[in-house]
Amino acid sequence: MKHYVCLLALTLLLCGCSKAQPDPLSDASAAKGGAAKLTAANAGASSEKTPKLIPAPDAEPSEAVLRKLQFQQYEEIEKAGGLPLTVSASGKSFTLRIKLYEVRKEGCKPSPQSPKGSYECNLLLTSSWSKDGGLSYDEPSEKGARFSVKWDAEAGAWVSD
Questions:
Q1: What are 121-161's pLDDT values in tens digits?
Q2: 29 CB burial (10 A radius; 0-12, 13-18, 19+)
Q3: Are the beta carbons of 119 and 60 closer than 8 angstroms?
Q4: Alpha carbon distance 158, 161 (integer Å)
Q5: How many Cα atoms are found within 13 Å in the side-chain-facing hemisphere of 107?
Q6: What does the pLDDT read at residue 4?
Q7: Which residue has the higher pLDDT, 8 or 73?
Q8: Cβ density class 72-82: b for 16+ within 10 Å, e for less
Q9: What's the pTM value of the predicted model, to 2 decimals?
Q10: Cα–Cα distance between 133 and 96 in angstroms, integer?
Q11: Are 146 and 160 in contact (CB under 8 A)?
Q12: What is the pLDDT of residue 30?
């Protein structure tokens, strides 16, 4: 048992002391003041490359933001020509077109195990459907929907997840 403990301690010591990359401060040029020039040059280069990130707001997304994102999503579906569906029992295929009328927010909660600014929202959607691209839509009805949104720090806006 003592041998295993010694081997484990030796392995941890060797792993802790090994270096994947040389330390820039141990270089001879660093001793002559090159380290200050190196860090100043890196600081200037990194600020040019990284865009300014806008932190996520503390509040959940508003109903207006969720409405806008939902309407954008349904417009993309419409531009793609609707939703192609196949009924598995009969094998019949058709295209479903959806017209969105209203979006109401019931509530949002932070997404579990996600970074700050990620929410899962419950919505009530009022929509109607048309089969095979017909011009007549069914009577509008309400349905519940779960919608995930997150904060895009680079754009400074809410986006669908």
A1: 999 999 998 887 666 778 999 999 999 999 999 999 999 98
A2: exposed
A3: yes
A4: 9
A5: 1
A6: 52
A7: 73
A8: eebeeeeeeeb
A9: 0.65
A10: 7
A11: no
A12: 46
> Residue 14: its pLDDT value, please?
55
- N-to-C CA span, the chain: 52
Instruction: Give a three-class secondary structure readout of the chain.
Output: CHHHHHHHHHHHHHHHHCCCCCCHHHCHHHHHHHHHHHHHHHHHHHHHHCCCCCCCCCCCCCHHHHHHHHHHHHHHHHHCCCEEEECCCCCCEEEEEEEEEEEEEEEEEECCCCCCCEEEEEEEEEEEEEECCCCCCCCCEEEEEEEEEEEECCCCEEEEC
Instruction: Name the burial class of residue 49, with classes exposed (0-12), middle (13-18) and buried (19+) by CB atoms within 10 angstroms of its CB.
Output: exposed
pLDDT at 138: 83
In one letter, which amino acid is 4? Y
Task: Check the CA dihedral 12-18-21-25 and report its sign.
Answer: positive
Q: What is the pLDDT of residues 2-59, one digit of tens each?
A: 555 545 555 555 555 555 555 555 444 444 454 444 454 455 555 556 778 999 999 9
